[in-house]
Design brief:
14 helices
Length: about 325
């Protein structure tokens, strides 16, 4: 066996061990699990970029066996189904020197598919129906109302004019709203996990010198103009479903808009950041504007989303950006 292959296998074993350590840290220290679930794939990404996709797959398999030994097969299977594919696809695309936008879109797609597969496997392995989560959400209103009644909170609220019927109606309405947005919440969570994973992986790869450049500065981030078609489709389905009482169309439209809202707000925030950068505002004024924005957060979010929607059509950031910016 030649030295190069031995070195590759040794590095694969090291990255697999690091992956196991990260996963077990989150497993045995639950408050850290949100963080470790997002970053434990980074060693797999680094290994795939430095060596090969084949070695990355092998290290992922070995790590899954080790984790199954400590946490049980079910936890290991669900964890790796949900995140391993994301690490491998990122490693492959980083190694292929794909554009950041393509890597992020591919990662978001894989993350969403992995989440849905994880939910399906959870249902099959535990015997709990996929609708169990929705049923639990429906029961939450009753549990909350009973808790308020036992602790005396309901009586104190009654003194202010709030009846049990009004409270239950409000809780039921909130639960129904969450049920309506559940697909959008799952999609948004998948996209967020994929994006954070990308940022961490890119930072590590840049530090190790395995990639030449990453995302441009935040002020130069911009959605493509054709992203507006998604908003148009969401609005059309929402209004069509509401006017003709088409429940499925209404749900599709609302969830599309829910997914787009943080994307548009982020695009608008990037545009504002660019304006601040070009105007060379003093730090005092920037802090003052941030405080005013936090005080009027709902209005600011709507304004940012609106700006983010129309910003790609003007392309003023591309026209006025510094030479080489965003390259």
């Amino acid at each position: 066996m030649d030295e190069g292959r031995v070195a590759a296998l040794a590095e694969g074993a090291l990255m697999a061990a690091l992956t196991v350590v990260l996963v077990l840290t989150g497993y045995f220290i639950p408050p850290l699990q949100v963080l470790t679930n997002i970053i434990w794939t980074v060693p797999i990404v680094v290994l795939t970029v430095r060596r090969s996709l084949r070695l990355g797959v092998m290290a992922t398999f070995v790590a899954s066996l080790a984790i199954a030994f400590f946490t049980g097969p079910l936890n290991a299977v669900l964890l790796f189904v949900q995140f391993a594919g994301l690490g491998l696809i990122y490693g492959y695309l980083f190694k292929a020197k794909a554009r950041p936008a393509r890597i992020i879109v591919a990662g978001g797609t894989v993350s969403l598919f992995s989440l849905l597969l994880s939910l399906f496997l959870t249902s099959k392995l535990t015997g709990l129906p996929l609708g169990g989560l929705l049923h639990e959400m429906e029961m939450t209103a009753n549990y909350t109302l009973e808790f308020y009644r036992r602790t005396g909170i309901l009586e104190r609220m009654g003194a202010t004019g709030v009846t049990p019927e009004e409270l239950q109606a409000a809780l039921t309405g909130m639960i129904n709203f969450l049920k309506l947005l559940l697909p959008g919440i799952l999609i948004s969570a998948s996209l967020l996990a994929a994006f954070i994973n990308y940022l961490v992986a890119e930072k590590v790869l840049l530090r190790l010198g395995l990639v030449e450049k990453g995302l441009p500065p935040f002020r130069n981030w911009q959605l493509p103009w054709y992203a507006a078609w998604g908003v148009i489709a969401g609005l059309a389905l929402w209004q069509l479903g509401d006017y003709y009482s088409l429940d499925l169309a209404y749900r599709f439209g609302v969830n599309i808009l829910y997914v787009y809202l943080p994307l548009l707000a982020g695009n608008g925030l990037a545009a504002v950041s660019f304006i601040f950068y070009r105007l060379k505002l003093a730090s005092f004024f920037k802090v003052l504007l941030v405080i005013v924005a936090l005080i009027n957060l709902p209005v600011v979010l709507v304004s940012l989303a609106t700006l983010g929607l129309f910003d790609p059509f003007f392309s003023y950031r591309r026209r006025t950006g510094s030479p080489g910016e965003g390259e």
